[in-house]
Structures are given as C-alpha cells and as structure tokens.
Amino acid sequence: MRTPVLVPLAACLLVGAAACGAGTEPADPTPSESPAVSDLERLDRLWADVAAARFDLKYREAELIIDCLEGQGFEVHNTEDLTQGWGHSSMAPSATLEAVDDPFGLPTAAEAETRALGFWLDYADTYDDQEGIELHEAEMEAESDPVEEVTELGDTSELERLGEGWNQLPPVDQMRWEIAYRGFDWATTSKTASILSDDDWEAIGHPGGEWTPVSSMTSGPQGCQAEVLNGLYGEPRQVENGFTDPQWVWGPVLDAQSEAFEPIDLSGEPEADLLLECLAEAGYGDWAFSGSGLDFGDHWRERYLPEAAVEREDGSIEYSHSDVTDADRERYATVKAEEFEAAAAVAECDAASGYTEAATVAYREALAARLLDAEPVYEAYLAELEAALASIDS
Question: Rounded to whole angstroms, how far apart are CA atoms 344 and 106?
C-alpha cells in the first residue's frame, strides 16, 4: 500500500519538541467534515504562543551555557547541537488536520495498475526486479522531500555566528568542547566521538575511549549544560515520549498523555464492513482490519519469502531477504502478478464501499477531538514556560 498520510497527535506531543508550533497559517476549517475544526483557530494561537515561549526560553538557556563555555576559553561552539529541535516550528493544528489524507493508503484504480499494493517494491531489490527498484527509489526520493512548511520561530543569527568555524576545528578540539559542554560520558555519544582515532583519544586524556550510544547513559549530562540548567531547574529527570528511549530533561516538559499515542481505529466504520464484504466476494475473505489498516502485510511476506522463513525461539517467524532460494525466485513473478490482481480488487472495493472517503472524514474528526482535548495540557505547559522565562530574566 501507499504510505498513509497520518498525523497522530503524539507526533505533536514529543517531549520537549517545538514541532507543533504555528509554522503555517491556519487552514480553512471544513465544518461539514469535522465540526470541531472551527475551534482550532483558538488552539492554533495557543500552540503558537507555546512555540514562541519555548523558543525564547531555550535561547536564553543556550546563551547562559555559551557564557559558561566561553569562561573556559571556548570561542567556537557547536551551535547546531545547542539549538537542535527548538529553532523551527511546523504546521499549526488546523493545517495538521487539513493535511490528513487517505488514512490507510489504499490504492486507487490507477495506482493499482502501476504499483499494486506496494509490497512487491519492498522485494524488488531481493529479486533483481529493475522496474520495482527504480519505482521504489523514485518513491523514496519523493518521500524524503519536506512535506510541510517549516518556519523559523525567531532570530538565531547570533548563535549561528558563534558556530562559524566549528566544522573546521580538528576533531580533538571539537571533543574537548563536547566534554566541557556536557561531561565526558555524554561527550562520547557525540558525532565527533564516532570519528576519533586512537591517537585522538590519547590526546584528550582518555586512551581507549570509544563512541557510546545515548541509550547506555544512566545519568544526566554534566559540564556547562548541567551547571547552568541544574542552577535553573534542579537535577534533570528522565521522561518518556512514547517513541524514543527515555530522555534526560530539565525545566518545563509537555505532559504527553498516553491516549495521545493510541492509533485512531477506523475499522468500526460501516464502510469498513462493506469493504470487507466486497473483498470476501472477490476471494479475499481472510483479510481484516488492524490498528494500522487492512492487515495483509504478513500474507504478502509469506508469499514473497516462503522458503526464507525461520522460526525463532519465541515461536515467531522471521523472514530474511538474504536467505531466498531458487524456488522463491521462480515463484516471484507469479506472486507479483497475484499482488497486482489483489490491488485491483482492493481499489474496486474501496471505491464501491466508499471506505477511504468516509475514513478520512472520521479520522479528521477523531484527530480534531484529540487536539482539542490537549488544550489544557498546552495551557499548563505555556504557563510553566512563561514562569521559567520570567525567573531567568528577573
């Protein structure tokens, strides 16, 4: 299937993220599809205020950390690292809602003719299918292009000026800055640490040192980062964001609710039943809905890699593209043709049932409700940001 264009609320509730600011103008509401959209103008303003306050707070923190580093003799700074994640914003809530399109990526009739359900593209390289390889590469390139407008929240030119020359510094000097910035342990998680030679580690006084993954850190950063932020907020704490390893943070943090990370289930829509009934009549009665849409990924994996299946100790089946056999290769063209035939049926049944059209409306309504439910969380977060900023500036 095509990659569905889903915008779960959780994407806007990442811990410490400024990704859901007011980066774009609010989209025109669509009351006929989602009654709650008319309220999003107020939420747009709130999220804009949150993004602006967070930018101001993070900018002041960065200035204080740089003062600390300059007090130790550092004149060139890794400002890209210092400003990561808070210098820009993306779509406003209303624009986020408007961007929702085709929640489960079912193919149209035209797409079914050219790319089927899209599963064969994942196996094209394994089976030396040049047509699939080229189409897959084209789609990956298109997906890598920015899909949303990103707007600068404020002027970071002064910080950028302090970063001029960073890339020209020798790795040893960069590593010394990293150690002063967040302590040796956390400095080993930096990009610089990954390129140091044995002689470089020796030069900075840590022979035998090596790069370390962030996930292995059991305590918060040290150095100037801790000196400044501990003074402002106390010791850092670990928080979960539902997507990555726990993060060490200081100060105000957006309180993401667990329900924000739950997928929006559209399998209960009447049109979903009509879609499944139509597919059953077409010979695909085994397919059903899961939280991520029509659940037939396992079916096609089993069809494309039957001889490469290996049962693991826990009883699950693992499929390795590197273990395909001659029998798999002989079967590939037949399975690919089956997928194109199935895609045509899916497209026809989707059009007949009206599922995609109805699911898109339902998804927008559910997402709008979640966005509005988050309003008190954002209001509390804004109050904390403003209080922290006032404390620094007092």
Answer: 10
